[in-house]
Specification:
The protein is an alpha/beta fold. It has 12 helices and 21 strands. The longest helix has 21 residues. Bound molecules: guanosine-5'-diphosphate, 6-O-phosphoryl inosine monophosphate and magnesium ion (MG). 6-O-phosphoryl inosine monophosphate binds next to helix 4 and strand 11. Guanosine-5'-diphosphate (GDP) binds next to helix 1 and strand 3.
Length: 432
């Protein structure tokens, strides 16, 4: 039995979806522990290419229970659309459950997300506009509604009336239109009809699963650099993609986590605003964007691209207590002759940081320090073992592992389910 968290080790979009799809084969449960439909987790398998937003990436296996956990914010409308799409391509959603304690993302949260971004003027965060920030904000101020409220119409109606007193004031101040409580209530009653059988109290279910020795995967959304506390605040999401939050957001005891797999690309990407010291504005950045198809899976926005950030990975590895690295998109670097890795940040006052990311205002002026490594200039997508990789690719991956201080568990060399392999017993030494 193992409880494994799969978390983003960079700025999001590292390939968490494809890693969870690969690992879920052996799982009994896959639980999304935070975030909302701001996620775009791409999976390519026998069902073709699917981008999942709320549904956990274990959904493609009929024997796996998939839970949208308590730490999530759930937009019922987009969840229903996602379920309909999955069914249309032949994926069974019979084992999809939603924690009754998960927050409900309401239609007015999306409106507020847009109005709040507009109100920020030039200093935007670059949110996905899915209403995630306003939904978590209502959770924290205790005016949120929970998915389980759908099962108690009287309670729901009273909670909604109460919430709308503040929401309608906010909407009006920001230049929007107040919402009609009756209309929202009726919409929620439609969601209730369709979602009620999936709404569960996860506590007894997961307690039994743990006691039965089941294999449980905890699927994170986004990455540590966008964590509400540890990321580049305020250019962050409104929840915690780090592994410490995984058991809590999923509904498991703190000590239940056995493994933490940090997923990172072999280079860096970021979508949205904020400092990104390793960003490239040249033809190599363009090549990464073209070859890696670096466009947001949820919003379609072009992703900013750059060299691998060895400082961010040390920080991410330590904060997450990573036990293994899953390195994706190695193949995207196949044609580059000389690769660079950022191994330090020089701050404006001359201080050099190698294993910790400073606060955002300092990071804004940080200059990356580079190390160069020879590329392999050979296609790697056909490789299915560590030994099959060119020696330069093995050295590059080993260097990432050395910087992180974490062994490599998996290497991915293409987007399809079988385009990856386990690293086996890793040696953190450079081969000649
Ligand atoms: P997530 O949000 O972390 O699940 O990642 P996304 O799905 O947003 O972005 C990862 C993108 O990279 C998707 O388009 C994947 O199909 C693709 N991808 C994942 N692993 C690999 C890989 O090893 N090689 C290549 N070329 N593409 C990959
Ligand atoms: P996955 O799970 C990449 C970014 C947004 C913005 C910031 C806050 O696919 O890795 P939000 O809508 O959460 O309030 O936006 O976070 N962001 C993502 N970037 N991948 C995602 O999800 C993201 N979800 C949010 O671009 O900078
Ligand atoms: Mg994504």
């Amino acid at each position: 039995m193992t409880v494994t968290a799969v978390v983003g080790a960079q700025w999001g979009d590292e390939g968490k979806g494809r890693i969870v799809d690969y690992l879920a084969k052996r799982a009994n449960y896959v639980i999304r522990f935070q975030g909302g439909d701001n996620a775009g987790h791409t999976v390519i398998n026998d069902f073709g290419k699917t981008v999942l937003h709320l549904v956990p990436c274990g959904i493609f296996y009929e024997n796996v229970h998939n839970i949208i956990g308590t730490g999530c914010v759930v937009n019922p409308q987009s969840l229903l659309e996602e379920i309909a799409h999955l069914k249309s391509i032949g994926v069974s959603c019979d084992r999809l459950w939603i924690s009754s304690r998960a927050q409900m993302l309401m239609p007015y949260h999306r409106t507020l997300d847009e109005l709040e971004e507009q109100a920020r003027g030039a200093d935007t965060i670059g949110t996905t506009m899915r209403g995630v920030g306003p939904a978590y904000s209502d959770k924290a101020t205790r005016s949120g509604l929970r998915i389980g409220d759908l099962l108690q119409p009287d309670w729901l109606e009273a909670r909604l009336d109460n919430a709308l007193k503040t929401i309608n004031r906010k909407l009006t101040i920001l230049g929007g239109q107040p919402v009609d409580g009756r209309e929202v209530y009726e919409l929620l009653m439609e969601f209730r009809l369709q979602l009620a059988p999936r709404i569960v109290d996860t506590a007894p279910i997961l307690r039994m699963a743990l006691e039965a020795g089941n294999d449980i995967l905890l699927e994170g959304q986004l990455g540590v650099m966008r964590d509400l506390d540890w990321g580049i605040y305020p250019y962050v999401t409104s929840s915690h993609p780090t592994a410490a939050f995984a058991p809590s957001g999923a509904g498991l005891p703190a000590g239940s986590l056995d493994e933490v797999h940090g997923v990172c690309k072999a280079y860096s990407t970021c979508v949205g605003d904020g400092p990104f010291p390793v960003e490239l504005h040249d033809e190599i950045g363009k090549l990464m964007q073209d070859v890696g198809k670096e466009f947001g899976a949820t919003t379609g926005r072009p992703r900013r691209c750059g060299w691998f950030d060895g400082v961010a990975i040390r920080y991410a590895a330590w904060l997450n207590g990573m036990t293994g690295l899953a390195i994706t998109k190695l193949d995207v670097l196949d044609s580059i002759e000389t690769l660079k890795i950022c191994t330090g940040y020089r701050l404006a006052d001359g201080t050099v940081l190698t294993d910790t990311v400073p606060d955002t205002s300092l990071l804004m002026d940080a200059q990356p320090l580079w190390e160069e490594m020879p590329g392999w200039v050979t296609p790697t997508t056909g490789c299915r073992s560590w030994a099959a990789l060119p020696v330069e690719a093995r050295n590059y991956v080993s260097r990432i592992s050395e910087l992180a201080g974490v062994p490599v568990a998996y290497v991915s060399v293409g987007p399809e389910r079988d385009n990856m392999f386990g690293r086996g017993s890793p040696a953190l030494v450079t081969e000649q």
